Amino acid sequence: MNNKITSCKTKKTTLAAALIISLSIVVLAGCSSGNNSNQATNSGTSTSSSQTAAGKSSTDTNGDGIPDSVEKTYGTNPYVADTDGDGVNDKEDKAPVGTENLIKEASAAQLPIKIKDARVEDNATADHLEITLTNSGNTTLNNFDIYYTITDKVDKTQESYYQTMNGLSLNAGETKTIHFDNQVKEAGHYNGNMNGLYGTSVNGLTFDIQLHAKGYQPLNFQVEKAKGTAEVAD
Ligand SMILES: [Ca+2]
Ligand SMILES: [Ca+2]
Ligand SMILES: [Ca+2]
């Protein structure tokens, strides 16, 4: 009997001890997870306060892993991951503002487009490449793309860009103006790199432009920018 009582007491003691231990573990775990969450909160707070302290330096508008401030240094466009449109994102592109001409056309038909106006300064808003074109043919034109090089008149530095003109369509006789100002949510607006030569060089620039619609030969024209940096919107 005594043995049984002893063994029962021992069991009770062991159970109590086990309970205390497991309670301590729970308390400790609670403490430690509390600490962790505090640390997480603290580190979160410190990250966001350092972001605030650094102003917009860590903002990455296009989410390509290159902060806007670094895009400015690289001369790439913070609004698009592939600045020159060659299919290689800036992060991997050894020449992020240089692409070969990606316009492919077998047809020899002349593109029935009249360029009514093309400018890279004296725009109504901040400076950007702006082209006003009229469809002088009898059928709707679409599937446009564009290739242009920008050449610095003094040091001969060159950049080249290609892009498809998504959504651009011109009925017979219709006139439209297209803008390369990164306001891409609006119809007729496309990306344009203001961190490259256009926004940074004080020298005169020549834009050699090829506008193409599928089934027609590309149309070539030039736009000149006088010396002095383009006016970039803040
Ligand atoms: Ca970026
Ligand atoms: Ca690229
Ligand atoms: Ca490239």
UniProtKB/TrEMBL annotation:
Signal peptide start-end: 1-29
Compartment annotation: Secreted
Cytoplasm is among the record's keywords: no
Biased composition (Low complexity): 36-59
Stored InterPro entries: Ig-like_fold, TSP3_bac, TSP_type-3_rpt
Chief location of this protein within or outside the cell: secreted
Taxonomy, superkingdom: Bacteria
Annotated stretches, region: Disordered: 36-90
Keywords, comma-separated and alphabetical: Calcium, Secreted, Signal
Entry keyword annotation includes Calcium: yes
Pfam families: TSP3_bac (PF18884)
Name of the molecule in the record: Thrombospondin type 3 repeat-containing protein
Species lineage: Bacteria, Bacillati, Bacillota, Clostridia, Eubacteriales
